[in-house]
Write a structure and sequence with these properties.
The protein is α+β, with helices and mostly antiparallel strands. It has one domain. 18% of the residues lie in helices and 40% in strands. The protein has two helices and eleven strands, in the order αβββαββββββββ. The strands form three sheets. A five-stranded antiparallel beta sheet has the order 1-4-5-6-7, with no helix packed on it. A hairpin with a 2-residue loop joins β8 and β9.
């Protein structure tokens, strides 16, 4: 009878050490999440957008409600090197900064740009920040996840 107990104990110890060795002990440093160019996404009839290139899909309905508009044809989306998503659209007064989580994008910050609404917004990735250009007015804004730079 002592032999099965010893074998069971040895098996449990081996599994314990094996599980510890396979645990999440590897960390990759210096990850750059930046998308090199913005995504211009068409909003469907359900207020959803789908960026197939970067494999992200979500509803913009809460953002439309926050902006006080019922619909837009398209939104502009870009991800900075720290992994935050920046979203805006023509007619919006703000840029919305979202932090990705498990099956969600959480609002990190609302950056006020103009009370009159953006005319023709476009995002550009720059070294250390996201540039927002309103092609309609020629105004340029430098943004990061903490706000205007």
């Amino acid at each position: 009878m002592a032999k099965p107990k010893l074998t069971t104990l040895a098996l449990c110890v081996a599994l314990l050490f094996g599980a510890a060795a396979c645990g999440p002990s590897l960390t990759l440093q210096g990850v750059d999440y930046a998308q090199p160019i913005e995504s211009v996404l068409t909003v469907d009839s359900n207020s959803e957008v789908h960026d197939q290139r970067y494999a992200v899909k979500f509803s913009v309905a809460p953002v439309l409600e926050e902006e006080g508009v019922s619909s837009v044809d398209e939104v502009r989306l870009i991800r900075n090197s720290a992994g935050f998503y920046f979203l805006t659209a023509a007619g919006f007064s703000n840029v919305y900064v979202f932090e990705p989580g498990e099956s969600e994008l959480s609002l990190e910050r609302v950056i006020s740009i103009t009370e009159n609404g953006l005319q023709q917004p476009a995002f550009n990735q720059r070294d250390g920040y996201v540039e927002l250009v309103d092609m309609g007015t020629g105004d340029t804004y430098n943004l990061d996840q903490t706000g205007r730079r």
